[in-house]
Design brief:
Layout (H helix, E strand, L loop, with lengths): L6 H18 L5 H7 L4 H18 L3 H24 L11 H28 L5 H30 L1 H14 L19 H4 L1 H28 L4 H28 L2 H20 L5 H32 L3 H28 L4 H6 L1 H18 L25
């Protein structure tokens, strides 16, 4: 198989699988743990918004660091910081200095890791055999996604947050090891026009970030509350969604590979909007909530490659992939922080979580308009180019652990 012939891709995917275990395990419990640790729903949403806003501020130093150490070591540093951030959850009990340190360390880790990882994969992805390579990668990731939330929920119930989140942190840090044998990608000190070329990608990510605020972050809290704030039941719901995603990826893969961008925009954004409406209407109905959560995995099979084809094709054409993704991630932070701030305000004044989930439709409309414009200008592009970049980690753009 061509997958085994590219040593670099093998190592990058091994890194991806280890990271998927951490983020799909303890990482998926980030926001719901804060709820159990004494924060109110508006408090969790506000802390999440502050974390993303802080990422936007911290990101200014990332380019200087990337020029000095190169992309490989930037990803290594970000991976280790991600691992270090998880144990900061354990001392949090309501509002206090432990919560402040958690927000700062998490924001710093995410700031370094996500733009550098996306840029690194975009630069080193093997386009010639990407279908076979990513087919194996996604199959294994799907299997890990079934097991990891169940194990994380069991660890939280049986041994408490210290064991659960320290274990998650160690696993995440170990994901840096495969990168020690991958090649470096240097970053030029100057790349005229790079940030201007990233403007369209950043605008698209503003919309995607807004979608993620209601569709993922608020929904995680709503699902957890609907399931009685039970870690094991919540982990089981995530495992069911991972299983649906694994099957859905096999069934929908052929459509993704052969579909045209314009058609895929209508189908993927239509399905996304349908699931947003469904999630907003299933509170107090645990079975329906689990079903709505599982349907989100099917959305990812269509929405993610449709959107990320546009983003990654633009990144490849830009003068610098790292500068492009720094700008794009900045747009994502603006969108998700704005959406979460609105959600925090709505719930603070007595509004329901259902209403805040519905606000994700605003972002969906924005993404739809921008994607329609992109594919109208590039009518022959099929929606599988995003797969090269390894963006399926996080369902929509980047799945936040907050």
């Amino acid at each position: 198989m061509a997958f085994f012939h590219n040593r670099t891709v093998n190592l990058l995917n091994l890194h991806y699988w280890i990271t998927s275990v951490a983020l799909g395990g303890g990482g998926a419990f980030w926001s719901v743990y804060l709820l159990k640790a004494g924060l109110s729903v508006p408090g969790v949403l506000l802390m999440s918004a502050i974390t993303f806003a802080l990422r936007l501020i911290l990101r200014s130093f990332l380019l200087l660091l990337g020029v000095r150490v190169g992309l490989r070591w930037l990803v290594v540093i970000g991976t280790i910081l991600m691992g270090i951030s998880f144990p900061f959850l354990t001392p949090v009990h309501g509002v206090g200095w432990p919560l402040v340190w958690l927000v700062v360390v998490t924001a710093l880790a995410d700031t370094v890791y996500w733009p550098s990882y996306h840029a690194y994969f975009a630069a080193l992805g093997d386009e010639e055999h990407r279908g076979q390579q990513l087919g194996v990668r996604e199959a294994i990731s799907a299997l890990l996604g079934i097991v990891s939330p169940l194990v994380a929920g069991w660890l939280l119930v049986s041994f408490g947050p210290r064991v659960a989140f320290f274990t998650t942190g160690v696993i995440e840090a170990l994901a840096a090891l495969p990168l020690l044998w991958t090649p470096d990608v240097p970053i030029a000190r100057r790349a005229p026009g790079a940030f201007r070329a990233a403007l369209s990608g950043a605008m698209l990510f503003v919309g995607d970030g807004w979608v993620s605020s209601g569709y993922f972050v608020v929904w995680q809290l709503a699902l957890f509350i609907t399931l009685g704030q039970n870690y094991l039941t919540y982990g089981g719901a995530l495992a069911v969604a991972a299983l649906v995603g694994a099957v859905g990826g096999l069934v929908l893969g052929r459509y993704i590979d052969s579909g045209r961008g314009g058609q895929a925009v209508w189908v993927s954004l239509g399905l996304l909007s349908l699931v947003i409406l469904l999630r907003a209407g299933v509170q107090d109905h645990p079975v329906l909530a689990v079903a709505a959560n599982a349907m989100g995995a099917l959305v990812g099979c269509l929405y993610v490659p449709t959107m990320m084809t546009a983003v990654y094709n633009q990144a490849k054409r830009s003068p610098c992939v790292l500068r492009f993704h720094i700008a794009a991630e900045g747009g994502w932070d603006v969108g998700v922080a704005t959406g979460l701030s609105l959600a925090a305000a709505v719930t603070w004044y007595g509004g329901s979580l259902s209403l805040t989930i519905l606000t994700a439709l605003i972002g969906a409309v924005f993404v739809f308009i921008l994607l329609q414009r992109y594919y109208a200008a590039h009518p022959l592009e099929v929606v599988d180019a995003a797969l090269e970049a390894g963006e399926f980690q996080t369902q929509v753009g980047e799945m936040p652990k907050v």
